[in-house]
Structures are given as structure tokens and as C-alpha cells.
Amino acid sequence: MFFCIFAFALLYGATPVKAVNPVIGEWAFSADQAPWEYSRGRIVIELDEEEALAGKLLFDSGIEVRITRITRDEEKVVMDIYIEGYLVRTVVELKDDELKGITETPDGNIPFSAKRYVPEE
Q: Is residue 27 part of a domain?
């Protein structure tokens, strides 16, 4: 009898395990060709109430900008932000805990890279 109840609980009471999205977390980024106030900082990516990707950029200069849209497919991550009224889109690939790609700005493309942020102890 116990076995039947246990088997029933396993089959029908189990909740599916959510796949962990590897882009979620905090990233230290650099875009050396960007103006100095936008060239370094951290990206924070999390899930919002609807379980969609959301986040913000925390520039080392003290500027904080909300990411207006984040999408991810098998090959790339796309982040849209508005800087000084202009759409700036970053398109990167995630490989080995590193984001590499370009940031598309009104003035041209800028190389972009980020690594998982590890706070100093």
C-alpha cells in the first residue's frame, strides 16, 4: 500500500524542474571604445514577475540604466537600452561564462565583453 501511495506521489505530485537560464546573474562588462562614462560597469539580469528576462546596467561612473528588453535564443543574447535618448542594442554570444559581441550605437558598433561578476572579499 505504501509503495502505491509513494509511486502515485512521484508520478503525479512531482513538479517539473525549471531549466536554469545561464544568462541570469551579475556580469562585469567593458566596452573600451565607448565614452568613458559608459565603458565599464556591471549588468544585473534576473527574472521579472512574469518570468521574463529583465535587468539594468550599473556603470562605474554612477549612472544606472534599465534594460528595456532582453531576449535570448540558442545562439545569442540581445539587450536594448536607451542612453541619452538613443536606442543602444548589445548583441552577444554566451560561451564559457563569458558574453562577447558588439554594441550597436548611433555612432557605430563597439566591441563588448562581459564575465561573471565575482565580488571581492
A: yes
Number of structural domains in the chain:
1
Between CA 82 and CA 31 the distance in angstroms is: 16
Rounded CA separation 105/95 (Å): 23
Residues in CB range of 74: below 8 A, 6 or more apart: none
Q: What are phi and psi of 36, to 5 degrees?
A: -50, -40
pLDDT in tens, 22-54: 999 999 999 999 999 999 999 999 999 999 999
Residue 61's CATH number: 2.40.128.120
pTM: 0.79
Query: What are the cell numbers at 62?
Result: 554612477
How far is residue 34 from each of residues 4, 67, 96, 102, 105, measured CA to CA in Å?
64, 17, 25, 11, 9
